Amino acid sequence: METDYVAEFPHNHIDRRPRKRPRFAWDFPQAHPKVTASLFVSLHSGLYFGQDVGNGTSMGPSRVLLTDHSGLYLKGLAQKGSPPWRDDDKDGHYMFALGENLTPRYKIHRKIGEGTFGQVLECWDRETREMVAVKVVRSIKKYREAAMSEIDALQLLGKYDRNGSRCVQIRNWFDYRNHICIVFEMLGPSIYDFLRKNSYRPFPVDLVRELGRQLLECVAFMHDLRLVHTDLKPENILFVSPDYVKIPDYKSFSEAACYKRLPKSSAIKVIDFGSTADGHKHHNYIVSTRHYRAPEVILGNANLLPP
């Protein structure tokens, strides 16, 4: 199989006088003979290595950049190639750069959140051609185990909530470079983020009533499946749409803050099922984020079994 890259001469005219031979495009740093031979076989067999997908390594055509630790580089980097391997930070978070790929399918657009579990990245899904939210879990055993439990809960919820009107929908999941990655539909801001950007102005009573109704329906739906969220808080309740309108704020005494934001849609969904408890089992450990923890949980009198 012929390679499909073309080497270009660096000059239009080459002086014929004896001198040190110029470096052309095909002059690569010398690598170990075994590495060079293996790369030659990979190229001429139409395969390449270096794309981490799931628990293994993806194989595909030869229009990619092949790199090894000896410093050998070949031309023809594909836009869908995997980024260079980087060590995680001291806390086990995945290190990335904007514009890089998270497997050949997802291109990282920006970071939209970070927490104890890991990071949430907004990515372009090349297969479905839409923006998605990818939760990249820290490469630590307990968080990986929690992520697998969350996947089980999400799949169970999605099985019975086919319209996806209560809980965030899972689209996909994979294990990438020792990080569990969960792909979700793209939603709007959380209730907390919306309030924060709105200078913590309160929502109208009618909107609060509608948000409460949807939240109670979601909790009842989970309890019917014998599941307990255990971490309900404004940060884990997201508006479906990011759109909002500005209306006059007549209670404001500042000219710079005479308008406040209101969401165009009151539709919400619950996220973050990493600490979801199975109602079929008895749990006596402390749950919920400390700032929102209920008194009965603090006192150790909580029974997580749904009625």
TrEMBL record:
GO MF annotation list: ATP binding; protein serine/threonine kinase activity
Pfam families, per the entry: Pkinase
Domain Protein kinase: from-to ranges: 106-307
Keyword set includes Cytoplasm: no
Gene3D superfamilies: Phosphorylase Kinase, domain 1, Transferase(Phosphotransferase) domain 1
Keywords tagged on the record: ATP-binding, Kinase, Nucleotide-binding, Serine/threonine-protein kinase, Transferase
Residue numbers binding ATP: K142
Signal peptide start-end: none
UniProt-listed InterPro entries: CLK_kinases, Kinase-like_dom_sf, Prot_kinase_dom, Protein_kinase_ATP_BS, Ser/Thr_kinase_AS
SMART domains for this protein: S_TKc
Coiled-coil residue windows: none
Annotated SUPFAM superfamilies: Protein kinase-like (PK-like) (SSF56112)
Gene Ontology CC: nucleus
The family this protein is said to belong to: Belongs to the protein kinase superfamily.
Protein name in UniProt: Protein kinase domain-containing protein
Species per Swiss-Prot/TrEMBL record: Linum tenue
Classification lineage: Eukaryota, Viridiplantae, Streptophyta, Embryophyta, Tracheophyta
